[in-house]
Specification:
Blueprint: H1 2-19, E1 32-36, H2 46-61, E2 64-68, H3 76-79, E3 84-88, H4 97-108, E4 112-116, H5 127-133, E5 135-139, E6 144-150, E7 165-169, E8 173-177, E9 182-188, E10 202-209, E11 212-217, H6 229-243
Parallel strand pairs: 1-2, 1-3, 3-4, 4-11
Antiparallel strand pairs: 5-8, 6-7, 6-9, 9-10, 10-11
Length: about 250
């Protein structure tokens, strides 16, 4: 009798769920992302600020957030839990051969990647990674305000931005750029001192890569950037793209 009663309650619950026109699993499932922030070079103080900000974005927008500085998490059985990996200013050589293989397999099986700021200051001797993130860091001048041009105004990561947009941050120069990236934002080198890439100086981009999705923004050095509503909108759209949401 108890068994029959339990089945009846379950059917009733499923019927009520269906009446709302929402799949039952939607109530329980949310994608999960992993923040990776291992540093074997310069350690950005804003990593902790950025981690907290991304956790808030997740809580407000329906995705869960884990974080680690442990590269041994890069194993197939662990990475498959995550809809996207967020490289929050990792620096230097952070992976061994097994971790490199796991990241490649993750991307090639449709995984998402988000690189923030010093994600381009990482794994210089592994060209596959440079192609994934979209570039390699070269140098930066002192932190200062600069003018940014919105190259793609229709992308969710730039919608609502003024053009030009003025922003204060640490402004990266690049020694390598993947020619296949789709540029979202570039910087006007006439608006500040210390630029080294000329008229074509991208600062945010995305591209489909070997079956996966990659988004990168060079911004995010300062704590203040992590409370900038435009930057957070920009980053959220990049995370959603990496997760697989259009």
């Amino acid at each position: 009798m108890k068994y029959i009663l339990s089945i009846s309650i379950l059917v009733c619950c499923l019927t009520l769920t269906g009446a709302t026109n929402r799949p039952a699993l939607e109530i329980f499932y949310q994608p999960k992302v992993l923040i990776f922030c291992k540093t074997n070079g310069y350690h950005h103080a804003s990593i902790s600020t950025g981690t907290a900000a991304i956790r808030r974005l997740g809580a407000e927008n329906g995705f869960a957030v884990d974080s680690t500085a442990d590269s041994t998490w890069f194993r197939k059985k662990i990475l498959r839990k995550y809809a996207a990996l967020i490289f929050l200013s990792p620096t230097g050589k952070v992976f061994g051969p097994e971790e490199e293989k796991a990241l490649q397999e993750y991307i090639r099986h449709g995984g998402g990647f988000v690189g923030i700021h010093a994600a381009t200051d990482c794994e210089y001797n592994w060209q596959w990674y440079g192609d994934l993130v979209g570039g390699y860091f070269k140098s930066h001048p002192k932190q200062q305000e600069a003018r940014f041009f919105i190259v793609d105004k229709t992308n969710p990561a730039t919608q609502g931005f003024p053009d030009p947009w003025t922003h204060f941050d640490e402004l990266y120069n690049f020694k390598y750029l993947n020619p296949d990236i789709h540029v979202l934002i570039k910087i006007d080198e006439t608006s500040y001192t210390g630029g080294a890439n000329g008229d074509n100086h991208p600062m945010a981009w995305y591209h489909d890569f070997e079956g996966g999705r990659s988004f990168y923004t060079a911004l995010g050095h300062t704590d203040a950037t992590w409370s900038d509503s435009l930057f957070l909108h920009h980053l959220l759209a990049g995370i959603q793209y990496a997760i697989g949401k259009k």
